[in-house]
Amino acid sequence: MELYYTKRPFLLFLSFTLLLVASTRADPDSLQDLCVADLGATSVVVNGFPCKPASNVTSDDFFFAGLSMEGNTSNIFASNVTAANVLSFPGLNTLGVSMNRVDVAPGGLNPPHSHPRATELIILLKGRLLVGFISTSNQFFSKVLNPGEMFVVPKGLIHFQYNVGDKKAFAITTFDSQLPGVVIASTTLFGSTPAIPDDVLAKAFQVDQKVVTAIKSKFER
Ligand code: GLV
Ligand code: MN
């Protein structure tokens, strides 16, 4: 009892630190060397994906060529994100990492979005990109990146990349999650299924409902 009281501040500090570490961890550590995702498994439901039988695993499960090809930027944002996450690259299952390739045409934008499950590191390989995020205290942090330069976006915060150069830009982004998830602000609010009521959006953005209808028409699926 005596010991408990003398050590109490230390124990409290320790529990607080452990709580903090637990709450800031990304994907959980894996418990085996490999667990290539069996994306088609329907009978088992786990947090992630079950492993395919080890006897069926080959070198191909740890290889992905999808980021070697330029993405098609012929769309309203003039940008394209190619994902190498557990869904496209099942060998990443349980490993806690993933990558994207981001291609942005001159004047194009990878629109404001957030990743609920990951911090993002971006390295620019070609072109010039204005990158930025907004903190929960509404502060905007940004930089113009040149090739070889990096920027980090803390987990869950809204961010974007905008091509401010006169050539195509190409970046690689990395995440501390096998499936970071993405919430694109404009398409989430104005293109959801079913749609968010117009008056909710009109009130939220302090605009007329006609403005809401006009924006929705751009994102309707
Ligand atoms: C860029 O922000 C990305 O999510 O790949
Ligand atoms: Mn992102």
Keywords summarizing the entry:
five-stranded antiparallel sheet; alpha+beta; single chain; Germin_Mn-BS; signal; binds glyoxylic acid; globular; binds manganese (II) ion; manganese ion binding; 4 helices; 10 strands; 2 domains; 221 residues; apoplast; Germin; Jelly Rolls
Walkthrough of the structure:
Its main location: secreted. This is Germin-like protein. Residues 74-213 form the Cupin type-1 domain. Pfam families: Cupin_1 (PF00190). Mn(2+) binds at residues 113, 115, 120, 159. This protein is an alpha+beta fold and 221 residues long. The protein folds into 2 domains: 27-180, Jelly Rolls; 191-221, no CATH class. 22% of the residues lie in helices and 26% in strands. It contains 4 helices and 10 strands, in the order αββββββββββααα. The protein has helices at 2-24, 185-190, 198-205, 209-219, and strands spanning 79-84, 98-104, 109-114, 120-126, 129-134, 140-145, 150-153, 158-163, 169-175, 183-184. The strands form 2 sheets. A 5-stranded antiparallel sheet has the order 1-2-9-4-7, with no helix packed on it. A 5-stranded antiparallel sheet has the order 6-5-8-3-10. Helix 3 (198-205) crosses helix 4. The model is unreliable at 16-22 (pLDDT under 50). Residues 81, 100, 102, 110, 120, 159, 161, 173 line the site of glyoxylic acid (GLV).
Proportion of beta-strand residues:
25-35%
**Distance between termini?**
65 Å
Major β-sheet strand ordering: 1-2-9-4-7
- Average pLDDT over all residues: 91
> Which CATH architecture of the largest domain would you pick?
Sandwich
Roughly how much helix do the residues carry, as a percent range?
10-25%
Shape: globular
Instruction: Tell me the CATH superfamily of the largest domain.
Output: Jelly Rolls
Largest sheet: 5 strands, antiparallel
Topology order in helix (H) and strand (E) letters: HEEEEEEEEEEHHH
Quaternary status: single chain
Instruction: Specify the structural class.
Output: alpha+beta
CATH topology (fold) name of the largest domain: Jelly Rolls
Tally of strands: 10
Number of domains: 2
Are any ligands bound, and if so which?
Answer: glyoxylic acid, manganese (II) ion
What is the level 1 CATH name of the largest domain? Mainly Beta
Spans where pLDDT lies below 50 across 5 or more residues: 16-22
Please give the count of helices: 4
Return Rg in Å. Answer: 21 Å
